[in-house]
Write a structure and sequence with these properties.
Blueprint: H1 3-8, E1 21-26, E2 29-36, H2 55-74, E3 86-96, E4 104-116, E5 119-127, E6 133-144
Antiparallel strand pairs: 1-2, 2-4, 3-6, 4-5, 5-6
Amino acid sequence: MNKENIIELLPYQKPFLFVDGIDTVSEHGITGHYTFKKDESFYKGHFKDHPITPGVILTECMAQIGLVCLGIYLLKDELNESIKPQIALTSHQIDFYLPVLPNEKVTVISEKEVFRFNKLKCKVKLFNEKDELVCRGFISGMMKI
């Protein structure tokens, strides 16, 4: 399974797709990126005259790249165009350190902690273009086929 196949199997579409590309992927982890465009709808009200990316959206970006894309890769032998994964977020704990502004590219690095009984738990980090740590934590979810 190549990187483009993983993105094609994601159960998201614009405007709720927060994956532009996957840089590396293996049985142990994944690295991917996304650029938050200045015309994203959530910037209109968060915050007035000084928009920043909401933490829940940063968490979603980390979940899409660090959990769902990695989960698809780990289940690659069981998936095809007619058998697609179903994903349910089960828990997350994220600490935030810096804001992400409109037009800023972020990189998500995810390391697999546990993948057992189709439950995946990952340690995730999100970095800005200056390679500064924006947020980090743990995300878990169930992968069903």
